[in-house]
User: Fold this.
Amino acid sequence: MHFLGNVVIEVAGLVARSESYALAYHRLPALDADGEPRDRVVGLRYLDVFTFRDERWRISSRRCVCDWTRTDPVLPGFDFPSGWLRGSADGSDPVCDESWRTNPPTHP
Assistant:
């Protein structure tokens, strides 16, 4: 998962430059059969140049600047209560459910 924040954009005519801070979270598998999985967090910035063409702003170049990283063991943590919707990378994620797109739930 990547989380973006603190975006600064400077526009000069049909060119814009931006700096975006980001945190990237990665769950890494165990290094060997006896090891434990690890969580790696990377602090980085995207340096983008946008150009306006074909009636749209588009990224014309991107540089990724890595500022820091941290790797931690995965510790036992919060267990989700039964009934909570859970994310999944195998195609069963709730966002993949077509009924969500065509008939979203309503809330009181």
User: Anything to note?
Assistant: The chain has a mean pLDDT of 90. Residues 98-102 form the longest helix (5 residues). The longest strand covers residues 56-73. The domain at 2-74 is CATH 3.10.450.50 (Nuclear Transport Factor 2; Chain: A,).
